[in-house]
Design brief:
The strands form three sheets. This protein has an eight-stranded mixed beta sheet with strand order 3-5-4-11-12-8-6-7. The longest helix is centred in the last third of the chain and has 21 residues. By secondary structure, the protein is an alpha+beta fold. Helix 7 crosses helix 10. 33% of the residues lie in helices and 14% in strands. It is built from twelve helices and twelve strands.
Length: 383
Amino acid sequence: GMPTTHGCLPLKDHVAAEDSVQVRRLRAAGAVVVGKTNTPEFGYTAITKNLLFGVTRSPWDPERTPGGSSGGSAAAVAGRMLPLVTASDGGGSIRLPAAFSGCFGLKTSFGRIPHGPSTSWEYVETAVYGPLTKTVEDAAFFLDVTAGPAPEDPRSLPPPGLSYREALREPLPRLRIAYARDFGYVPVQRDVAEAVEEAVGVFRALGHQVFEVADGPEPAGAAWAMTGNFDIAGRWHEVITRHGEDLPRSYVQGLRAAWEMTPERWGELARARMRVARWSAELFQRVDLLITPTTPFEAPPAKGPFPVEIDGRRLPPAGVAAFTIPFNLTWQPAASVRVGLSRAGLPIGMQIVGPWHRDDLVLRAAAAFQRERPWHPRWPEVP
């Protein structure tokens, strides 16, 4: 019964015929659905603006973006409009706005919260649903309500067998935590790097074994973008071909490039994704958690563009999501917590990545950090 436009001008009159599994479960638990929030067209970028509703701005600084693609959701939390919101993450679209807006954001394990109902299968399978909230406890509550299998999604995981809220009460065992400063190829804004490094020290002070890893997975931004565009181009082919003039020119160019996909290129991308998965599998045989910056830089301007280099070093393709994309490809749970403010007074995020299906461990680690460094009392003053 609500407009469901995907932030897309050609779909401005589209109204949902039914709730998603996620929203249905939230309503059943007593949630009051207030409305929809803004997103870039089909969630394609980490800056929230579109030709239908315009630009979404950060409550921390209206000249900056709250991130994307779940940027409207993040702005609603940071602006203290709502205590929790739904969001989705196909390459960082929960964690990036969480970092830029100072929220807590959890990218769940693939299948933890069911998709659907849907009219088509997503072959790329990187996108998940998850919460954007003020606190870790609220996210755990959200997950208790929404997690578990559903017949509408044959990829959904079995019941987790625990309460995530109850799990937060359990003390953390002594963990082996890897810290990746820059993956060896991602330049990071100086004050962002300093804030994350200081935050990593909190886990050392709590008695966990923390060691630095110099190398990350191979850069995956270009491969991720090509496969994602190919999937979108297939599912929305008619809208794109008939109404391309009503979509951002740069977005249409990316989609048209994906139409040049060949079996050979598809095979190359599949092998690249497996190399990322193998890197992560080998790392998590030695560690319990991985910590990285969530983003290489603070929130960019509300209308863009993203920076292309930092301190003279060029960012890799899809650089804003260089730390987040790998774990969409591997299906691992990952969260972003606020660790401080930049010199410009903008939030900085730290990413905590867990092993496969261990959403509970990511939440418990985030809660341990929150107890030591509570971020949630401080929010921007909004008229």
